[in-house]
Amino acid sequence: MLQRVPGELGEVAGSLVRLEIHNEGSRLLVLTGLRRVAGLTELQLQDCHLERLPSALLALTSLRTLDLQHNSLRTLEELLGLAHLRRLSCLRLAHNRVLALPASVGVLRALELLDLGYNQLQSLPPFKGLKCTCGNTEIGPTERT
């Protein structure tokens, strides 16, 4: 299991567009190596025991798909910081412990799919043109204010 994103990723950074890390529940502690692969368009960090959105994501401006399923996310306050990920169209956050979705998710203008299935959400803010899934239920497209 990995405890950190390997710094050696920088050696293939120019050609790497997809990165998958499935850590089988072991905590991924250091994610700063992600900053070296700014050309990524798809990132999966599944089962890495993440509790917050990693700040290293801010460097991934080409990202279109972000998959953080099967982690320990509780809060999504950092979503506002992802506003400059202008190409992000798919955000998968299923199988976490998210209690509330902040209205700041609205800053993700290119977002088309938001998967929140199997979390502990009480309600969702309104969105326009966004396909949102919660468990086996699809919500949307709904109104975005």
TrEMBL record:
It comes from the Eukaryota. GO terms for cellular component: cytoplasm. Keywords: Leucine-rich repeat, Repeat. Signal peptide: none annotated. InterPro entries: Leu-rich_rpt, Leu-rich_rpt_typical-subtyp, LRR_dom_sf, LRR_domain-containing. Transmembrane segments: none annotated. This is Uncharacterized protein. It comes from Hucho hucho (huchen).
